[in-house]
Specification:
This protein is of the alpha+beta class. Helix 1 packs antiparallel against helix 10, helix 4 crosses helix 10 and helix 12 crosses helix 13. It has 13 helices and 14 strands. Helix content is 23%, strand content 21%. A seven-stranded mixed β-sheet has the order 2-5-6-10-9-8-7. Strands 1, 11, 12, 13 and 14 form a five-stranded antiparallel β-sheet that branches. A two-stranded antiparallel ribbon has the order 3-4.
């Protein structure tokens, strides 16, 4: 993917982003270790007997399997040489219904105030929020103290509370933001694929469900905040597999440095600024801070830094850690771009920012194999976790899958995300995975055919062939709305 299209999105190993779409984690984002042959398949074939590698009726995952999650991970919407251990600072708790300290257990109530599907559904011609997405908003998983997402968030805030700088915490903000907040204020260009309705859920022409927590960065800078963390649920249309979900969680961090510390760089712009000792000092502080965070979460571990590109930071970096013998990319970060600060009316200041995906870290640390599990209400899942503790997920019975294939001729403007979203809208979370298994072009017709295998599986019960046939028939009928010709 063209790096100019990246947001807080470090690339994970062995991943290629297709269709020039906005890279997205949910967090451990793309798990697919199989190289499928280009074999012709009969459309809509019922494949209730799983292939050999899938013949396993229990949810089993070990440390090695968790590493498989990360080694095949795709992109996560994300944003240090010595482990810092500081003390004395606590989080700010300035009065606000949208502001909470790391130790307050009441954060869930305000976070869930947005659980009103009617806010996100309308008759506006450009509203593309489906009911199943509207129903996810306001769950507040990141503020639940005994939920894996909430535990990771709390541990990150715990680390920042130990630093000498005081960080304000925002973790219950309105998920509806403007296009200015989400894109323009962050120097994301008008042709960025992330602005496309195939990637983003729009409420109307000017508002949308935030695609990243960076959408709140400028408003907090403009309000006068000098150091803050911002956590929340974000939404993005994406492919379907065990590490992709249209709703996930991120945590953003920003720190501005005192004006007196930057006196030597006053008035510097462009390369003159990025080459200055002051810019290097900010980058060094950023790296030391984030390396300390990784040690806090994973234990002392080997790390390495790579240069990267994000529209809103320069210079930009990605951080990798060595965990259980494997190098894993965990976050993106950088020195805040001077134009971002100017647009936020903070052009006299300099600082750094980072972003990371909470699901990404939780899947690794808790060894959770399927991102859908974070959203389950099953007590067999929730009873395993306790506030402040990282415990390995113990698998429980896994119901058998049902495999269905669907093939069609595609138009020139076909977008996979639209197809994936349609399937998820029809079948909901029982769609476990959708993968392209065959593609060919007929030279005589000048047409291209794609064949997808859909894995249906419930985490709560066995599915019947009859109910899946009904869902598949509905999908075959509705997919014609995308301009395809079913084979």
């Amino acid at each position: 993917m063209n790096k100019t299209h990246r947001q807080w999105l470090p690339l994970f190993p062995n991943h290629t982003t297709t269709n020039n779409r906005q890279p997205s984690l949910s967090d451990a984002r793309h798990i697919d270790g199989h190289n499928h042959r280009r074999t012709r398949y009969t459309p809509d074939t019922d494949r209730r007997t799983p292939p050999p590698e899938a013949q396993n009726d229990t949810m089993k995952i070990s440390t090695a399997a968790a590493l498989a999650v990360t080694s095949f991970a795709g992109t996560c919407h994300c944003w240090s040489a010595t482990f810092h251990r500081h003390s004395g600072a606590a989080f700010s708790t300035r009065p606000s219904t949208f502001l909470f300290s790391a130790v307050e257990d009441t954060a869930t109530a305000p976070a869930t105030k947005y659980a009103d599907p009617a806010r996100y559904l309308s008759d506006h011609p450009n509203n593309n929020v489906p009911p199943h997405i509207a129903a996810l908003v306001g769950k507040g998983l990141h503020t639940r103290p005994s939920h894996p997402i909430g535990i990771i968030r709390s541990k990150i805030q715990e680390y920042f509370a130990s630093l000498p700088v005081q960080y304000t915490v925002y973790d219950a903000e309105d998920p509806i933001v403007t296009t200015t907040q989400c894109f323009d204020d962050l120097r994301i260009p008008p042709d960025h694929p992330g602005r496309s309705p195939s990637d983003t859920y729009y409420i109307d022409d000017a508002t949308l469900l935030r695609t990243h927590t960076s959408a709140h960065q400028s408003e907090h800078l403009r309000s006068g905040a000098d150091a803050f963390l911002c956590a929340g649920d974000v939404y993005r249309r994406d492919e379907i597999d065990s590490s992709h979900y249209p709703a996930f969680h991120q945590l953003e961090g920003v720190r501005l440095f005192p004006v007196e510390d930057m006196k030597g760089a006053e008035g510097l712009k462009g390369e003159a600024w990025t080459d200055s000792p002051e810019c290097k000092a900010i980058a060094d502080d950023l790296k030391a801070t984030l390396e300390g965070l990784m040690d806090h979460l994973f234990g002392e571990t080997e790390k390495r830094w790579n240069e990267d590109y994000f529209p809103f930071t320069t210079p930009s970096y990605e951080l990798e850690i060595k965990y259980e013998g494997e190098w894993l990319e965990v976050l993106g970060c950088g020195v805040v771009h001077e134009e971002v600060l100017q647009m936020a009316d903070r052009g006299d200041r300099r600082g750094w920012a980072f972003g990371l995906g909470l699901e990404r870290l939780a899947m690794i640390l808790f060894e959770i194999p399927d991102i859908r599990l974070f959203w389950t209400e099953d007590e067999r899942f929730h009873s395993q976790f306790r506030e402040g503790e990282i415990t390995k997920f113990q698998s429980y019975s896994k119901y058998p899958p049902v495999y269905k294939d669907i093939a069609f001729w595609i138009p020139d403007n076909f977008v996979e995300n639209d197809f994936f979203e349609m399937a998820r809208g029809i079948a909901g979370d029982i769609v476990e995975k959708m993968e392209l298994i065959d593609e060919f072009t007929n030279p005589k017709k000048g047409k291209t055919s794609k064949c997808y295998r859909i894995t249906y599986r419930s985490m709560d019960r066995s599915l019947t062939n009859e109910e899946i046939d009904a869902l598949q028939d509905e999908l075959r009928e509705k997919v014609a709305d995308l301009g395809v010709e079913v084979r």
